Sequence to fold (118 residues):
Amino acid sequence: MLEGYLPIFFLLAIAIAFPAIALIAARLLRPSIPNQAKLEAYECGIEAEGSARGRFTVRFYIVAILFVIFDVETIFLFPWAVRYKQLGWFGVAEVTLFLTILIAGYIWARKKGALNWV
Fold:
């Protein structure tokens, strides 16, 4: 029974070891000469003003979440497009319902003003 899981354990060991080895090798091979200029936060050559821990408005997070939601939902169209001919009219009806729900969500978010920056 354990021999069926052997390839999984092997791939798990590789998945854990590869990033660890890459990080250790990078640390050993890179030049490390810290100075004041290298330790400063980079802002296009302009000296940093204030703290980097500034607050963002809630609207920024709402737009980001909406983008992720609508972006992930459109990914579900790819499997449908691959099997378009096999699904027939049933697939067309399902994707129409899916897009209707997606568009209704977009219209709702637009009416709520979630996408307005002002």
